[in-house]
From TrEMBL:
GO terms for molecular function: ATP binding; phosphatidylinositol binding; protein serine/threonine kinase activity; sodium channel regulator activity. Residues 98-351 form the Protein kinase domain. The lineage of its organism: Eukaryota, Metazoa, Chordata, Craniata, Vertebrata. Its EC number is 2.7.11.1. GO terms for biological process: regulation of cell growth. Residues 352-427 form the AGC-kinase C-terminal domain. It comes from Microcebus murinus. Residues 1-17 have a biased composition (Low complexity). It is an enzyme of class 2 (transferase). It catalyses: L-threonyl-[protein] + ATP = O-phospho-L-threonyl-[protein] + ADP + H(+); L-seryl-[protein] + ATP = O-phospho-L-seryl-[protein] + ADP + H(+). ATP binds at K136. This is non-specific serine/threonine protein kinase. InterPro entries: AGC-kinase_C, Kinase-like_dom_sf, Prot_kinase_dom, Protein_kinase_ATP_BS, PX_dom, PX_dom_sf, Ser/Thr_kinase_AS. Pfam families: Pkinase (PF00069), PX (PF00787).
Length: 427
């Protein structure tokens, strides 16, 4: 189609000096319009045809096909699987840019691997998601929402950072900060509960991250220990933004049912519209778990969240008791959070010893040091992940290859996913 679209360049330059031709009759204009539409349709068809060929590794081995597509490196099929999404894409990124070292996490749609970027020599976490699984469960909106939120997170120290994103024919890839201080849940399981000063420090950093998201009109909606990491120094890092809801103004609400059973605010199981205050309820639930070792409503969770009276054991200080009673309050009129969002939280007496300026600038010393020797030290990671063999082919998975008919659907579903930063560097 490139030859067809560029055929006008074959005209002699001398024709520009001739007088303009007379205007064609209307029926010729109609024919010309139909011809342009026909040619546009043919170009689209050729584009789809070439895309199908490019995603068929057997066809791509044929010498004539390679000469047409000008494939310079046929030994790396990942290079043939990229879908160029225009200005927002990173067309040069592909799995062969990385040394994949260890599996460090798994989820519903794929795995997270510790990797080292070959050119930059920087460690990172590459989260690969299978398009087929995402489309089957109709979760493409959540994935795109996660990508959008990650683009907003570059300015906050307690939110995981996105370096860039790209996609191959069957997978989406997030290239993220490498965080190796361990999952928050991992440390909480080992120690069962935390002393109040440590719980207060973590709650303050979590609150700071949530407050920042709220300032961008983003509701997190899935705060739980499994979505919280510790960095190499022991600071909090929130991850996994797939359930975030964007464009929620100060008094805006959402009715989408989501979240983890132990942690949702009462509005969620009762299917009532909820707003950004649901994040503060979840903070209360996580703080409760830090202090007591279990979520506040552990058995028959939805029924208890809606109906069970909230009781606190007597072995915590009054300030901790008061903030938990305010955050986990079912009576909306008594909520701690409903009036002034994050400002109301940070001014609570429970955080009276927190210097918020020092906190946001990471000048406050964390109460626990993971003591990792370097970015490749995974001593706080789950062995069931790190001992798993790294897949031989990161670019394509035999069990998740999209059939040709769904390539176009995937391209439309994840249009704009790829992202390249202004500076082509991790630094």
């Amino acid at each position: 189609w490139q030859f067809i679209s560029s055929s006008s360049s074959l005209l002699s330059p001398s024709t520009s000096s001739l007088p303009p031709p007379p205007s064609p009759p209307s029926y010729l204009l109609q024919q010309e319009s139909k011809s342009e539409a026909f040619m546009k349709q043919r170009r689209m068809g050729l584009n789809d045809f070439i895309q199908e060929i490019a995603n068929n590794s057997y066809a791509c081995k044929h010498p004539k096909v390679q000469s047409i597509l000008k494939i310079s490196q046929p030994q790396e099929p990942e290079l043939m699987n990229q879908i160029n999404l225009g200005l927002s894409s990173n067309p040069h990124a592909n799995p062969s840019d990385f040394h994949f070292l260890k599996v460090i996490g798994k989820g519903s749609f794929g795995k997270v691997l510790l990797a080292r970027h070959k050119a930059e020599e920087v460690f990172c976490a590459v989260k690969g998601l299978q398009k087929k699984a995402i489309l089957k469960k109709k979760e493409e909106k959540h994935i795109m929402s996660e990508r959008n939120v990650l683009l907003e997170n570059v300015k906050h120290p307690f939110l995981v950072g996105l370096h860039f994103s790209f996609q191959t024919a069957d997978k989406l890839h997030f290239v993220l900060d490498s965080i190796n201080g361990g999952e928050f849940f991992y440390h909480l399981q080992r120690e069962r509960c935390f002393l109040e000063p440590r719980a207060c420090f973590y709650a303050a950093e979590i609150a700071s991250a949530l407050g920042y998201l709220h300032s961008l009109n983003i509701v997190y909606r899935d705060l739980k220990p499994e979505n919280i990491l510790l960095d190499s120094q022991g600071h909090i890092v929130l991850t996994d933004f797939g359930l975030c809801k964007e464009n929620i103004e100060h008094n805006g609400t959402t009715s989408t049912f989501c979240g983890t059973p132990e942690y949702p605010a009462p509005e969620v199981p009762s299917k009532q519209p909820c707003d950004r205050t649901v994040d503060w309820w979840c903070l209360g639930a996580v703080l409760y778990e830090m202090l007591y070792g279990l979520p506040p409503f552990y058995t028959e969770m939805y029924d208890n969240i809606l109906n069970k009276p909230f009781l606190l054991k007597p072995n915590i200080m009054n300030s901790a008791r008061h903030i938990l009673e305010g955050l986990l309050q079912k009576d909306r009129a008594k909520w701690l959070r409903a009036k002034d969002d994050f400002m109301e939280i940070k001014s609570h007496v429970f955080f009276s010893l927190i210097n918020w300026d020092d906190l946001i600038n990471k000048k406050s010393t964390p109460p626990f040091n993971p003591n990792v020797s370097g970015p490749s030290n995974l001593r706080h990671s789950y062995p069931e992940f790190t001992e798993e063999p790294v897949p031989n082919s990161i670019g394509r998975s035999p069990n998740s290859i999209l059939i040709t008919a769904s390539v176009k659907e995937a391209a439309e579903a994840f249009l704009g996913f790829s992202y390249a930063p202004p500076m082509d560097s991790f630094l």
